[in-house]
Description:
Helix content: 25-40%
Number of strands: 9
Shape: globular
Number of domains: 2
Largest sheet: 4 strands, antiparallel
Radius of gyration: 16 Å
Strand order of the largest sheet: 7-6-8-9
Mean pLDDT: 90
Distance between the termini: 48 Å
Number of helices: 4
Oligomer: single chain
Amino acid sequence: MYVPFEEMPYSSRIWIYQSDRPFTKDETTWIADTLRAFCDGWNTHGQHMATSFEIVHHQVIILSVDERSFPASGCSIDSSVRVLREIENTLGLNLLDAGKIAVVHQDSLSVSKLSGIKAEVLAGNILPESKIIDPTVSKKADLMENWIITAKDSWLKRYFN
């Protein structure tokens, strides 16, 4: 059952998916409609869960499940991956490849493949103070303080020594 993201408890489990490019306005509308329909029916072993999503920076999808009543099962998580794969295939995006780093600029993101990170650092495109998204946070509460961190405070610090 869909719940507006701002109403999801801070203890909710989250998954973060970064796109390799920004969504257009029409794509954002289609993604939101697709995810709203998915969340309305998202369940674990036949039990509907309180679920939500948020699209941020025109390029990042955050899925959320309130696991206080029913924890997300492997099958329910697989169903979320299927809908994300559908979004990828329909819109020609790369969401599910975790091998990306998103650098946060004032009004946009730049996303680089992990294989090119060293070159991005050497070119000065990623600096120690650059803000990056940490896609490994797993609770909504972490979005408040731990989601966007400096590159020097992440595993990227090895490139700045």
